[in-house]
Amino acid sequence: MTVHMAVETVRDPAHGYTGEPPGQDSAGLRVALLPYEGERLHIVVSGPRWLRAELEIPTAELWQLGARLRGLWSDLFVRHQSPDGGYGGRVGGYPLSESADLSEFAAVTDELVARLARHGHGLLTAMLDGHHPDLRGVRDFLLDALAGPDPLRVSFDSCVQLPWAMLAVDPALCTSPWEAFLGYRHQVEQNAQQSWDHAPSAVRDRAATSLNKDEALDGVGRAPDVHQLLDEQSRLTVRTRGGELLDALAVRVLTEDLMYFWCHGHYADNGASGTCLSVRLTDDEQVDGPTVAQQRRGIPRTPQARFKPFVLLNACHTGRAGAPNALKHLGQELIAMGAVGVLAPQIDVPQVFAAEYAYGFLESYLAGERTAGEISQSLVRDFAEKYHNPLALTYGLNCGIDSRLDLAS
Predict the structure, then answer these.
(1) 3 in a domain, yes or no?
(2) Does residue 101 sit in the same domain as residue 37?
(3) What pLDDT does residue 85 have?
(4) Range of the domain at 249
(5) What is the pLDDT of residues 362-377, one digit of tens each?
(6) pLDDT at position 83, please?
């Protein structure tokens, strides 16, 4: 008797390298940075064309340049000081961190944005610099596509996570430096992933959400409005202690459509092995990548299990990945567990701005009309055009560019 075996492909280690170029629509672009030999990476670009080449920049140097760019954003913008109080701030204060609306500082922010765009362009060109004909072909095609007039959906599938939205095309080719950033021009995500069949969730009239918070931040900016929004437009679970969160993550079927974290992110010392990014709610329980992975260890990736929320991880630095071959950070582990996407800041973003950003994103996502990729790009443009504030670019979307709230899933 013939037996028909059900087969599900859950990983593609070659990222299409050994097969035919995947068919994609003209509005989609995929860029994969893959381990190659020694200290080098292979770049594979697929979309309207399919190209590959070996990068000449060492992997470690590329990683360090990404960290440097994030540091420049923190130093030049978040910690920008008012030297004399001349433009509305107290002497020695940090006026660009005290409000989400920076319209009164437009002259200052425009100058800083121009500098940051040049640095973002510098990182993009450094990544693609080299003399081999294959690399020149990749560079010419990719830079032309990214600088073109048409907005794209761009997935960077990379073992080295760079702050992709903060990278920039040549500002000299743009009407203004704001338009040079990839996150302004395009919908951008890091690491698209292949999903698996989760346990189905019943058709429901409202989304199931959670607010995982540090109560010390309850009064910051629009944080009360965010809580009210979630309470009125979803079936909300509030957690204030790390143990409550870890218990929820250990449940085989977690039916939450959206998880929102409103807490602090910090680097915990691991001794000789370095540091690992952790978050804390109201108590002192450290919640990091290895801890949450342990909670779901042994739960199979089958239709009898479910962990499929979109996660807004609104805590400093949580949009960053661990170094290659190091412990995975919290956002990475949530993706590995099945989350459809994680949106999080890559720097020490000011709390007032973080609360404003969360309200804008959650209000739109809960409406169910737009994808996470569309919303994140629109927020970059809205904050730039209305408030002269570029900090929405510091939020990195890890997977989930096509994630949309679906109450019939």
Answers:
(1) no
(2) yes
(3) 58
(4) 207-398
(5) 999 999 999 999 999 9
(6) 67
For the entire predicted model, the pTM comes to: 0.90
User: Six-digit token pair at 80?
Assistant: 């920008």
What b/e string do you get for 93-112 counting C-beta neighbours within 10 Å, with b at 16 or more? eebbbebbebeebeebbeeb
pLDDT in tens, 148-185: 999 999 999 988 899 999 999 999 999 999 999 999 99
Same domain, 175 and 261: no
Q: What is the CATH number of the domain that holds 352?
A: 3.40.50.1460
92 — pLDDT class (breaks 50, 70, 90): low
C-alpha 319/C-alpha 329 separation (Å) is 9
Same domain, 140 and 273: no
Q: Does a structural domain hold residue 16?
A: no
pLDDT digits (tens, 9 = 90+) for 14-62: 444 333 333 344 468 999 999 877 678 999 999 888 999 999 999 999 9
Task: Kindly state the greatest CA–CA separation across the chain.
Answer: 85
